[in-house]
Write a structure and sequence with these properties.
The protein is an alpha+beta fold. The chain contains 4 helices and 11 strands, in the order βββαβααββββββαβ. The strands form 2 sheets. Strands 5-6-7-8-9-10-4-11 form an 8-stranded antiparallel β-sheet. It has a 3-stranded antiparallel β-sheet with strand order 1-2-3. It is globular and about 50 Å long. InterPro entries: COQ10-like (IPR044996), COQ10_START (IPR005031), START-like_dom_sf (IPR023393).
């Protein structure tokens, strides 16, 4: 999925340039990698997803975006998809295998699993950051999967909620999904990255669950129907 070599301060020669359009690293070997470029977030994510990681512990804040003050980000979406509630629920609750299909997830371990709850650890490699965190996940089959970050090292708060309800009356193999994410990073560096890439990242992650459902259960019965989320 990604290049797993980690670029750290120990092999950096030049830390940054001052042009606002990009932050550019040069390694001792002479190769270079663009870490940040403003503009189209989708193409940028595709570019940086193949770049090496930088461990946050070795990096101080190397850029500042003007006008970015709030560290809290939220995203919500409502869609009708061509899978049953049980099918999509089974994919979302399968935390053990997130590393195989969720973008930027490099590790997923479930320490405790019960019918109505689990405790899982995820490692997220979003270049140039590599971080892990633990969440408590509430399970209500087949209607709800809600994850709340519990370790407090990376996030001030993180809540991810999936709600599933019956879909179209004329299409039994469909369901209504309400997807909501709210988080606030402790780090200004993480917050500034999220400020630029957040919506595109969340859309990619959301779509990954639908692709995995199709891989497991076959073609969806209908195309995705987007609905305005409730205010």
């Amino acid at each position: 999925m990604f290049c797993h070599g980690r670029l750290t301060v120990s092999n950096l020669r030049t830390v940054y340039t001052t042009h606002w359009k990009f932050c550019h690293f040069h390694t001792i070997s002479g190769s270079s990698c663009d870490i940040l470029q403003l503009g189209n977030s989708s193409s940028l994510i595709q570019r940086i997803s193949s770049k090496p990681y930088i461990n946050k512990k070795n990096v101080s804040s190397f850029f500042t975006l003007p006008g970015v003050s709030s560290k809290k980000k939220e995203y919500s979406a409502r869609k009708v998809v061509g899978f049953t509630m049980e099918e999509i629920y089974s994919v979302v609750q399968d935390v053990e295998n997130y590393r195989d299909f969720v973008p930027f997830c490099t590790k997923s371990v479930v320490h405790i699993r019960k019918p109505e709850q689990l405790s899982g650890e995820l490692e997220i490699g979003f270049p140039p950051i590599l971080e892990s965190y633990t969440s408590r996940v509430t399970l209500v089959r087949p209607r709800l999967v809600q994850a709340v970050c519990t370790d407090g090292r990376l996030f001030d708060h993180l809540v991810t909620t999936w709600r599933f309800n019956p879909g179209l009356k004329q299409e039994p193999r469909s369901c209504l999904i309400d997807f909501y994410v709210s988080f606030e990073f402790k780090s200004l560096l993480h917050s500034q990255l999220a400020h630029m890439f957040f919506n595109e990242l969340v859309r990619q992650m959301e779509s990954a669950f639908f692709r995995e459902a199709e891989k497991r259960y076959g073609q969806p019965s209908i195309k995705v129907i987007k609905i305005k989320p409730p205010s």
